[in-house]
Specification:
With 537 residues, the protein is α/β, with parallel strands linked by helices. It is built from 18 helices and 24 strands. The strands form seven sheets. Strands 12-11-13-14-24-23-22-19-20 form a nine-stranded mixed sheet, with helices on both faces. A three-stranded parallel sheet has the order 4-1-5, with helices on both faces. The radius of gyration is 25 Å and the shape is globular. The structure holds glutamine. The site of glutamine has 10 residues, from strand 20.
Length: 537
Amino acid sequence: MSSLGKGIAASSIGALLQLRGYSIKMKKLDPYINIDPGTMSPYKHGEVFVMEDGCEADLDFGHYERFTGICCSSKDSLTTGRVYQKVLDKERHGDYLGSDIQVIPHITNEIKEFILRNSDDIDFTICEIGGTVGDIEGLPYIETLRQLSIELGKSKTMCIHLTFLPFIRVAEELKTKPTQHSVKQLQSMGVQPDILLCRSEKPLPDEIKSKLAMFCNVDKDNVMAALDANNIYLIPNQYHLEGLDKQICKHFGLSNDRMEKQVDEAIKNKWSKLTDIILNPRKTVKIAVIGKYTKLKDAYISLTQAIAHAGYANEAKVEISWINAEDEPDTIEKKLSEVSGIIVPGGFSSRGIDGKLLAIKYARENKIPFLGICLGLQLAVIESCRNVAGVTNATSREFSKSGTFVIDFMKNWTTSKDSIESREEDGAKGGTMRLGSYECKIAENSLAFEVYGKKLITERHRHRYEVNYEEYKDIITKSGLVISGTSTDGKLPEIIERKDHPFFIATQAHPEFKSSPLSAHPLFSSLIKAAIAKEGN
Ligand code: GLN
């Protein structure tokens, strides 16, 4: 079921196989009917993760990239909507030569083709199937698994079932029934799990493992505990100690004792310093995030992860103070007075912008380290134009029908990909955004250059509006903002900063998508460093 951690389980398996020297690919099959998650509300489904190629994907791709360091692409993400779209396009094109189109074989063949595509030079393709066993939408995917294990053979395929063992407090017992039933469901569809990965809050007693092995038809060594962890980056090692990667390799005939020792060493070398910092941080620092979706933490998952990574880079634990942008100004200011750094993250629509503008003003006036991300940059420009340059009606075309549009649609600019781009007001939602990786030129003698240490960087984007520098250069300059990063044609401001402040920087991109636990993003680690310096500890 959702929230059980399939994404983190799949990512951890990927990371462990990489440590054994294997190359991997991560793919996600989502049974919902949307074409992609781009138009889904982050409040319900969590964040939309943006890949290098601009694909708007499920947030699990963020875990894949953070745990394994590989770059995923639109070719690795499939939804039912996409499968049907493809099959229907073929049908209109006459590719099926008059035959009637059915779930089996036409839909399942498309899914199969997706799983096998681009895997020739890869040792392992790890496919995560979204949803819950038994969901109507999921049936074609499970059927495809069944077919694939016949076509490729058992020695080339493996099914890992992530399942839940609830702990019933009054009985002080872990219950195996939900797992028994979901395995029965799978078996009724012709799929036998090879490994049971059992999410539980308590260790699995031996008799529970025996019971699950017996009733689920699984080798007892392949019944594994996936215990709740305090920190997701402790999970690969936890799985390793449980024997997961060893059992996977055994299944494929790839395990031997010498290799096990090597893997123990490799895991130690790669993760032990991080584990030490996670478990024994040298200091704590408090950062405020002012947003609209603060109740559902998954809505900002890459952001929270990037903040945590930045903490690790500074050997610190970062506590996030979540501030609801729609709270009363007094409540917001009180919370802001307790933090050493402020982040205004990305967002859409005018709801909550007053709270965010207030936070930016507070950071600017009180010299609190500040990082603005995408909408956070746009609002930083609006705040400075209104409160420093005195243009009180400065705004974005996203929020208002009239005013001085310092943030606007930008027409006809040349991208780093050498194409002319333009966005317009009436463009359909879910296809009009600047998406994916773009190059940015950084000015020397700037905070941005200090942070990145480079003159040319790339970052991922997901937004419709831009800073209207061409038209309002004078106002923006008067407001004290300096443009320290631009698009390669020099037209679009990508990074802004203030010289009259110890650390005030904002980016039009989403740096949080490119941070990982072992390699924190420099913007975040510099913010945390500045926040620690501010606290004087
Ligand atoms: N709503 C703004 C835009 O579309 C910012 C988007 C974002 O923060 N990702 O330009």
